[in-house]
Amino acid sequence: MGVIRLGTSSWADRQLLASGWYPRSVRTPAGRLAYYASRFDLVEADTGFHAIPAAETTAAWAAATPDGFTFDVKAFGLLTGHPTRLAALPADLRPDGVDVTLRLRRRDLPEEAVEELWHRFHQALDPLDGAGKLGTVTLGFPPWLAYGPAAVRRVLDAVERCQHRPAAVELRHHSWFEGTRAAETLGLLRSAGASYVCVDMPQGLESSVPPLLAVTAEPAVVRFHGHSDGWERGAKEYTYSDRELEDWAARLRHLSADADELHVLMNTCCAGQAQRDGERLAELLSAPAPRRGLRAV
C-alpha cells in the first residue's frame, strides 16, 4: 500500500470552533492549527477558494505545523469559473466603478488580470512549497460545467497554469462520467498529469458524480461530502456510520495499492463532524485489514 494521508477540508470554520472539538486552552489560530496537526497529517486549505491568502499567512501555516504535514490548497474560485465577490479580488485588480458587493466571473476580467491572479496565487503557495508541505492545488470546477470541447479546454488550461505543482481536478457534473465518457475523462486527466478527485456525495442530482475510484496521477485524492438531503442547498450535515466507514476503509486500502500516496479528505464540515468521522476512519485504516473479500466498487 502507498502512504495514506487523512484530514479534513477545514481547521478553522466557525461551526468547528464552536463545537468543542478544540480544547478550551487552544485559543490562537497558530495553536488551533498545531492542535489539528497533532491529530491529522493532512488538511485542505479552502480559504484560497474564497480569496488568495497572503504569503505571510501561508508562511505562518507552515511554521505552525510539524515536518511531514501536508496542505492541499483549493484554487481561487474565480480561476475555476465560480462567481466571486469583487471584494475578494486584490484592490488593484478590481474594475473601476463597479460595486464591490457584486460577483464577477473570469470572463469579466481582462486576461492580464487573470494572469496576475494566477501569479499571486502561486506566490501564496511558495512558503508551503519551500517548507515541503504543499500537497495538491485542488481545482474544484462548478457543477454547471458540463462536458464539452470548451469545458475540456478550461480544465486543461487550469491544470497547465498550476505549472510544476501537482493539480487535482474535481468535476461536479454527471456528463463527465456517463457511459464510456468516464474512461475518456480519466484518460484526459492522466494525459495532462492531473490527479482525478474521487468524491462520495449524494446521487441523483445534476451535480452528482459516481464514487469512481481511479489513480490518474500522484497523489490519488478522495473527498467525502456525505449524503445530505440538502446538498443542492449547500447543506453539509452528515454523519458517516461505522458500516460506511468500514466499507470505505477497505476501498481506500485497495486504491492505495495503485498510488504512492493517497489523500483522503472529509468535507462534512458541520460542528466538528468531519473531524470526528476522520478520526474514526483513521482508526479503521490503522487497524489490520480484515480477511474478507472487498466489495465491488
Automatic annotation (TrEMBL):
* PANTHER family, per the entry: UNCHARACTERIZED PROTEIN YECE, UPF0759 PROTEIN YUNF
SUPFAM superfamilies noted in UniProt: TM1631-like
Name of this chain's protein? DUF72 domain-containing protein
**Provenance organism:** Dactylosporangium sucinum
Q: Which residues constitute the signal peptide according to the record?
A: none
Q: InterPro entries attached here?
A: DUF72 (IPR002763), UPF0759_sf (IPR036520)
Q: Which Pfam families match?
A: DUF72
Lineage at the top is:
Bacteria, Bacillati, Actinomycetota, Actinomycetes, Micromonosporales
